[in-house]
Fold this sequence. Notes:
Elements: E1 2-8, E2 12-18, H1 26-43, H2 52-61, E3 67-70, H3 75-87, E4 91-96, E5 107-112
Antiparallel strand pairs: 1-2, 3-5, 4-5
Helix pairs in contact: 2-3
Amino acid sequence: SSGINAEYGGGCLLTSCGNGNPKISPERLASDTAERVIKDIDEGGCVDSYMQDQLIILMGLASGVPQVRSGPLPLHTKTAIHLLESLTTAQFTVTKDPNPAPGEQSYVIECRGIALENAYLTQSNSCPNNIA
């Protein structure tokens, strides 16, 4: 397997991984992995396409109106949005980024989350001696 981390734009970090296959040469695997990172950077997102659907869940549970900038939404991200909207009162909007860099195809995903709070987490049952 191969993994590439790319830091750019003042601290943005994208990661791509490739799983080995006996039919694919290590050089091809590394090249494919690098191409995925470059594609994610070129699309202007702040997270790679595999992280998007994981963030959707957290955005849906959060309070306020969290936002994330992404490249074009893959099917697994669209599915996560559909599921969260179907199972909760979270509401998502996806709009084309109004200020993309030249050549970028970025979008802004915004959510009115459900503000989930842990009803069992109170001062009386928190960690003893304020140890977190």
